Amino acid sequence: MREFPAEVRNFARAFVVLRIERQQADYALDTDAYRKSDVLSYIASAERATGEFEQADIKAKRGFAAHVLFRQQPS
């Protein structure tokens, strides 16, 4: 990931963190596990990361898409 600009790296990090949080929320047995302020913070994080990603150079975005699509999975 070091070859990508900061906007792309930040997007990738935010995506992973938010995906984990979403999966945990899907299976949370405690309905009070997430407060409204937490959810709003996650939404703001997603919007910020997406906005930064949109500002990245088109070559970097295409390279990142190729990296995600064609990367080798560990055996």
Order of helices and strands: HHH
Rg, alpha carbons: 15 Å
Low-confidence stretches: none
What's the count of strands? 0
Protein model, in words:
With 75 residues, the chain is mostly helical. The protein has one domain. 72% of the residues lie in helices and 0% in strands. It is built from three helices and no strands. The protein has helices at residues 6-26, 36-55, 58-70. Helix 1 runs antiparallel to helix 2 (36-55). The two termini are 20 Å apart. The mean pLDDT is 90.
Provide the fold topology.
Layout: H1 6-26, H2 36-55, H3 58-70
Helix pairs in contact: 1-2
List its salient traits.
72% helix; 75 residues; mainly alpha
Short summary:
This protein is mainly alpha-helical and 75 residues long. Helix content is 72%, strand content 0%. It has one domain (6-70).
